[in-house]
């Protein structure tokens, strides 16, 4: 008859802590779990300075070029600011845990996993933001090149005014290009030469 295997309860490793055992240690662990605030909807925890967070966010906005940011780009920058802010909080909690008389390895491991999540959140948003800016810069550069190419072959427009000799009133004349002005000058010169030629003919008769 086959013998059934009896599942023994999990035994802790000799050199590994399974968490605080004293009442004070357990209370500190619960307090630390609350203080890290990773599962809260709001970024700021009680006692944190909103003005300091705003300086962090505004600094990142300036780094990426105000005011040409889209809403999606602003969202990515806020994601980076939130992750950065929470990472700094986690570092402080980690330091406090390591300075306790009874080190809670379970809570330290939890804090470490949250740090990895926040770092991934920051770098993912930063990578996407850089990709968007790269495409925008390339599009802007191409547009500027096209505008320069179009303006290079386009004649400059000359604005003229007609003046009424009797009233002195100035009237906006139709827009002319440099080519129009040159052609008008050539025609006027040709007409003057024709008149002079006719005058010479009459005098010679």
What does the largest sheet look like? Answer: 2 strands, antiparallel
Number of domains: 2
Beta-strand share of residues? under 5%
Count of helix runs: 5
Shape: rod-shaped
Element-by-element helix/strand order: HHHHEEEEH
The count of DSSP E runs of length 2 or more, i.e. the number of strands, is 4
**Rg from Cα:** 39 Å
Mean pLDDT: 75
Low-confidence stretches: 1-34
Helix content: 55-70%
What structural class do you assign from the helix and strand content? mainly alpha
Question: What distance separates the N and C termini?
Answer: 148 Å
Q: Order the strands across the largest sheet as they lie in space.
A: 1-4
Outline the secondary-structure elements.
Elements: H1 23-35, H2 50-63, H3 71-98, H4 105-152, E1 157-158, E2 161-163, E3 170-172, E4 176-177, H5 178-204
Helix pairs in contact: 2-3, 3-4
Mind explaining what this structure looks like?
- This protein is mainly alpha-helical and 205 residues long.
- The protein folds into two domains: 26-152, no CATH class; 157-204.
- The chain contains five helices and four strands, in the order ααααββββα.
- The strands form two sheets. A two-stranded antiparallel ribbon has the order 1-4. Strands 2-3 form a two-stranded antiparallel sheet.
- Strand 2 (161-163) and strand 3 (170-172) form a beta hairpin.
- Helix 2 packs across helix 3.
- Mean pLDDT is 75; it is low at 1-34.
């Amino acid at each position: 008859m086959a013998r059934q295997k009896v599942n023994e309860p999990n035994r802790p490793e000799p050199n590994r802590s399974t968490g605080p055992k004293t009442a004070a240690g357990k209370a500190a662990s619960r307090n630390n779990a609350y203080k890290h605030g990773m599962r809260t909807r709001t970024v700021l925890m009680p006692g944190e300075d909103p003005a300091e967070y705003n300086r962090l966010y505004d600094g990142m906005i300036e780094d990426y070029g105000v005011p040409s940011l889209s809403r999606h780009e602003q969202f990515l920058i806020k994601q980076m600011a939130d992750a950065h802010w929470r990472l700094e909080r986690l570092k402080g909690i980690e330091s406090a845990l390591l300075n306790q008389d009874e080190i809670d390895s379970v809570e330290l491991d939890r804090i470490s996993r949250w740090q990895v999540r926040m770092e991934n959140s920051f770098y993912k948003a930063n990578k996407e933001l850089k990709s968007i800016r790269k495409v925008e810069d390339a599009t802007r550069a191409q547009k500027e090149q096209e505008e320069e190419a179009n303006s290079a072959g386009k004649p400059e427009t000359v604005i003229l005014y007609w003046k009424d000799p009797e009233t002195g009133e100035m009237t906006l004349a139709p827009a002319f290009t440099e080519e129009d002005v040159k052609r008008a000058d050539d025609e006027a010169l040709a007409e003057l030469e024709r008149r002079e030629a006719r005058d010479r003919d009459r005098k010679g008769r």
